[in-house]
Amino acid sequence: QVTGKIGKALDMNEGSTKNERVCLEDEFSTNAEKTKCKGDNDIFDDPVSVRTVSLWYKADAVDTRQVLFEEGSELKGQVIYLFEGKIFACTTKSSNQADDLVCVSSITTANEWHHVALVWASGTTSYLYHDGEEVATFTGKDNDQHNNASALGNIAQKTRMAVDGDPDGGEFTSFDTKPEEDYSFAGIIDEFRVTN
User: Which residue, 5, 47, 57, 109, has most beta carbons within 10 Å?
Assistant: First the structure.
């Protein structure tokens, strides 16, 4: 722990340390599930019609793809990540249609504290706030029941992101089991909150 925006915070993936993450599941059947971040948690697994996810972050760099928050896998979930000087928020659904990934973004900077909030509502207007200002709106995808992992600071199993940050330019699924795909967040995360 280090000094955060408010009290103590998590210093993630510093120096040669990579692939750190905080599993947001609270029930594990085995130690293998715990190691692989594959537990259960009603906060993320149960379907809801609205959810707000927010956190403070201070990134060492913002040019590479780094996951701050991910839940629900590549088919039914949300992801907040950094890439090419922007912060992205995406929601997905499992229809495998061209419009099954929606992403919005805003400019961000490294080595400064920023606050991000993804205010998601199923099938209606949703919002991305950055540093207290509404920076984007979009129609949120349906949030379905799932038993997939959730994590801070990296991927927990699988997630879907936009190629070059533009969902119209294509999308891809990333897996935490592929070491060549390192999307770990290097920096500090503080005051993570979820409201259903």
Answer: 57
